[in-house]
Known about the structure:
The complex is a heterodimer of chains A (179) and B (401). Chain A is an alpha/beta fold and 179 residues long.
Amino acid sequence: MKSNHKIIFSGPVGAGKTTAITSISDIPTVRTEEAASDETKDLKDTTTVALDYGAIILQDSTRIHLYGTPGQKRFDFMWEILTNGGIGLLLLIDGSDSNAIKNLKFFLSSFKNFINKTSVVVGITKQDVNKKYNLEEYQEVLNKGLPVVPIYEIDARSKKDVSLMVETLLYTLDPKISI
Amino acid sequence: MNIQHNSKLKISLNNLDDITQNTLKFFFKSNLCEKAELNINDDNANVLIIDLDRQYNKEIIPNLKKSNQFVIFLHNEMNTPLSEENTYNVTKPVQVKYLKQQLSFIAQRINDIEESNDDSGKVNTNSFAATAKHAQSKPSSQSLGLINNKSPTQNFKNNHLNMALKKSTDSSTLNQYKAHKHVGSNRDINPDNPEELKKIYHNPKKYLYHHLVQAVKLGKDNKTDVLIKTLFGSLFFDYKSQILFHSFDKAKMRYFKSSPLFIETKIVKTSLSEKAKKDYSIGQNAESLIWQSAISASKGRVPLGTSLTQTIEMTSWPNFSRLLVFRYVIQIAAAWSTHHMSLLDTASQLKIPQRYIFTLYNAMLAIESAKINNVIDNTKKINRDKKKSVFSKILSHIFNH
């Protein structure tokens, strides 16, 4: 039986989790979106209410599952379930949100146990649209000795950028990977 | 040959102000509704219309568009238009005839590309292009994936991931690596041999990047603009935008970055008039230019006096998504981000030629994301992850696709 592995995408509403999964998925992304009703409504018309699912399918048919968590904090009970057995976390933060630093701290704290067991790469999206903080300000939140957390300004629509995040995640887990 | 008529140009309006957006909506509705389809922030559009005056960092703009997309920049006369490939400019206030003209050029180009790339016997004749068949189009130097329905992301060509993998590397790219474009051609040295040791050191003061670093530091410390006077002309650091401006063309700049010519360089605080600033027509994000210059100067070498055996302290992770990246960069940075290792130890543990490690260290030192720590601590070895097999497969997969 083929073993399965999963990479978790998380972050607040509107950070680009669904888009990022779509960028690198080899299958059409399964989205569980509903019309937004709460405070999310101010940010976008629909939002992920259960999870997003995509997959990278390797040559030997092994599936690397790509799971996107719902962004709303009230769904945090699902986060632990989704991360169980995950390879690592790709955390996306909406850089145009004035709460971006606060959100980064919140999600790092929420996934602390998972991150400690695995690894995390942070992607700041929409920096080109309406940048609220410089990358250095995000780095100040992260920098507390080793490990140094990778953080990039990314475009969630760009396969190149999302692939870079995956590459970085894997190398931080094992810098000796040879291909 | 199967010819499809009347395919519409897909236009996307990106982050425009309400007035401009509504004006353009009216324009398209009244003039071009049969020839163009207008949407807001449409990822799959052929053409993006972007307001260059709306807080866009010019370094980021090329990343807004996908490889098969065209861009029309709206800009005021004071703002320098961009001359990237597949970009067109329209001066504000927007005049319908000029916008229409640029759209005609683009439609014609798409049509030309479709015809030249048609390998399926199917030609999409764009109705907009048909009206512009006499329009003079810019020469195309890039094959776009518009006719074969490839997703834009399948067309990215300059991805370092692609370049990093031998299997997927075509001969020209492989030759590029063989030429050691970024890291030089130094062989691994024996640090106990003084003659070999000499080869891996350079004097930063002779290189452009060192002076750029000093200028940016002076600007940041004093919250002021800075002028860098060299024998070949001046560069200007704009403190507020963190952009280094100059007027050197690409060839000159490439030469300056790698040549040890900057021995009589002066760095002074300045407050140039708006008129004087116009002499510096080319701007680049300061960190990005310093990074590139440090790589070009290094070519597999480190600054004089750098310890090869003391451990490296990585202080922040470079923003590799917006910097020039060469082979092994992510792997080396990942090792430094998780382990205390020296330069020599990194090379031996990762089994990577020293020149790659030295070049990356030089660039990271220049942007202050790494430095030598004074503690000798080579005891920590990298342990392999038990999932290494699947990790290799995932990497191979993303490099190949």
